[in-house]
Design goal:
Layout (H helix, E strand, L loop, with lengths): L24 H4 L7 H28 L6 H13 L12 H32 L1 H14 L4 H12 L2 H26 L3 H9 L4 H39 L4 H10 L3 H35 L1
């Protein structure tokens, strides 16, 4: 092991209370058994859940004539996906273009939140002073509704699209900060003692102790942040209007095209599922590598 000299290690580590900690990756990830029979059983139960959802949707459409049936919603979904990227002007775009605009905003705000949230979470979780200074601010701002931030950012940026990006940033920030802080604050004491005995500098401690132990929690926080970001962008775009999948939903509602609304909901849910599965697989891989290490 290479011992890096440098500034003395700050071993006074914060220990966040359990009630304020977000779930860590190792506790949140359930690994599948991997057997073919088990996978078939899981797929079967997933189909049962979808069938129940379809039955409830059919029942709701029967009780409310204004609500499209599943068959009508699926037909509209097929129609929207048959030509998703046409562009006949600012007020007539295919649903695919709306989705791309929303994804661009989500990933921009999410990336900003990750770049700020991971270092901030490491600082809050790894140092007692960082926890004492940062935790009250996080707990003060975290409960604020995402939509409450929109007028603030709209005044600052003078642009609804940019304001939506900053709303994503501020709402996706907190899960990343809290999960990263929880991971950084839960480093085993024996590893901290080894770093102290070998007189690790701060960079060596960051590289060999802090980051490897906090990484599963970081991925869990990023997964939660992405889920929140995708959920919030729809509401923000409905509020701001214009392009984006949320604006498409609001425009369809205003024109009484409820079939398009239900089709857009299916698209939103499917994309959210794909994003979550991607981060779930990343989290499993990180957790597995940590166990093997």
């Amino acid at each position: 092991m290479t011992i890096t000299t440098g500034a003395p290690l700050d071993t006074e580590q914060a220990t966040p209370p359990d009630v304020l900690r977000e779930p860590t990756a190792l506790s949140a990830i359930r690994r599948p058994s991997g057997g073919g029979v088990e996978r078939l059983r899981a797929m079967g139960w997933a189909l049962v859940g979808l069938a129940v959802l379809g039955a409830l949707w059919q029942l709701g459409s029967a009780l409310s004539p204004d609500l499209p049936s599943p068959a009508e919603g699926l037909r509209e979904l097929w129609h929207l996906l048959s030509n998703p990227f046409y562009d006949n002007g600012p007020n007539d775009k295919g649903v695919g273009r709306h989705v791309l605009i929303s994804l661009q905003r989500v990933f921009t705000g999410f990336t900003m939140a990750a770049l700020v949230g991971i270092p901030l979470g490491l600082f809050i979780g790894a140092t007692k002073r960082g926890w004492q200074a940062g935790n009250p601010v996080v707990q003060l701002l975290r409960p604020v509704s995402p939509l409450a931030w929109f007028p603030i950012w709209l005044i600052i940026t003078k642009n609804p699209g940019k304001a939506a990006v900053f709303v994503i940033f501020i709402t996706a920030l907190w899960p990343t900060v809290l999960n990263t802080a929880a991971g950084a604050g839960a480093i085993p004491r024996d590893q901290r003692n080894v770093a102290l005995v070998f007189q690790f500098g701060r960079m060596a401690y960051l590289r060999h102790v802090l980051l490897p132990n906090a990484l599963p929690s970081v991925v869990t926080g990023l997964r939660q942040s992405m889920g929140i970001a995708w959920m919030v962008i729809v509401a923000v775009e409905m509020l701001s209007g214009g392009a984006g999948i949320g604006g498409f939903v609001w425009e369809s509602y205003n024109t009484a095209d409820m079939a398009a609304v239900t089709a857009a909901i299916l698209i939103i849910g499917s994309l959210g599922l794909l994003l979550d599965v991607g981060f779930l697989r990343l989290g499993r891989r990180v957790a597995l590598e940590e166990v093997q290490a």
